[in-house]
Write a structure and sequence with these properties.
globular; 47% helix; 2-enoyl-CoA Hydratase, Chain A, domain 1; alpha/beta; Lyase 2-enoyl-coa Hydratase, Chain  A, domain 2
């Protein structure tokens, strides 16, 4: 499907979704919400897609909500905007049982910051920054920011960034463990694609079940997490890729995983 505000490209079982409103720093409007939601749904359903990359066109990753759209008389209330657009988007990213990498090419602000945090891994340009900008317009962090940021950065740092609205530069984000890698801007997509293609050749079902178990464990005690891990391992043990992995180990050859 052709989109107006999203670009989609496939290579070697990796799908790249590029937010494409560069003139607005890839800020969310209604069209971008709808098209990104549709692109994510299509990627989730396509069995040939075994890793997903989300990035932005131009000099920004995503500047969050397009505040000009908020000036419209018929716009949704903020609560309805979150319930109908942002929350389903974040939930789909977190529940999609495929690895998702944010290639953060520039500023990720407001809900754009949370979009990056919702992904499984983040590779950042040395020009990237993360800004929980909500306080700058008299709002609280949303789209899952209050969930992800304390878990990734610790409560103290999360409160500092959300209270002040100060930017967290890429290098500092890496030192705090929020970003996996920081590379020169011109190397961002090559580095991201190298990682994405590695994950795309991995046992996708095992990665998906790992993601499911990690998500669930965030709200469990140890006993419950152990029980849930056991259930997920039972499922993983029945996959083709588990059998192939064992066979390849015995035969001392690289495994050929199918993602099933």
């Amino acid at each position: 499907m052709a989109y107006e505000t999203v670009l989609v490209a496939d290579a070697h079982n990796v799908r790249t979704i590029t937010l494409h409103r560069p003139e607005a720093l890839n800020a969310f409007n209604a069209t971008l919400h709808d098209e990104l939601a549709d692109a994510l749904k299509a990627a989730e359903r396509d069995r040939a897609v075994r890793c997903l990359v989300i990035t932005g066109a131009g000099r920004a990753f995503c500047a969050g909500q397009d505040l000009k759209e908020r000036l419209g008389e018929n716009e949704l209330s903020l609560g309805d905007l979150l319930r109908q657009r942002y929350n389903p988007l974040i939930l789909r990213i977190r529940t999609m049982e495929k690895p998702i990498i944010a290639a953060v090419n520039g500023v990720a602000a407001g809900a754009g910051c949370t979009l990056a945090l919702a992904c499984d891994l983040r590779v950042a340009s040395d020009k990237a920054s993360f800004v929980a900008a909500f306080v700058r317009v008299g709002l609280i962090p949303d789209s899952g920011c209050t969930f992800f940021m304390p878990r990734l950065l610790g409560l103290g740092k999360a409160l500092e960034l959300t209270f002040t609205g100060d930017a967290l530069e890429a290098g500092a984000a890496q030192s705090l463990g929020m970003v996996s890698r920081v590379v020169p801007g011109e190397d961002l997509m090559a580095t991201t694609m190298e990682l994405a293609q590695r994950l795309a050749q991995a046992p996708t079902r095992a990665i998906g079940l790992t993601k499911r178990a990690m998500n669930r464990a965030l709200s469990m005690d140890l006993e419950a997490a152990l029980a849930y891990e056991t259930d997920m391992q039972e499922i993983a043990g029945r996959t083709h890729d588990h059998k192939e992995g064992v066979q390849a180990f015995v035969e001392k050859r690289p495994p050929q995983f199918r993602g099933a």
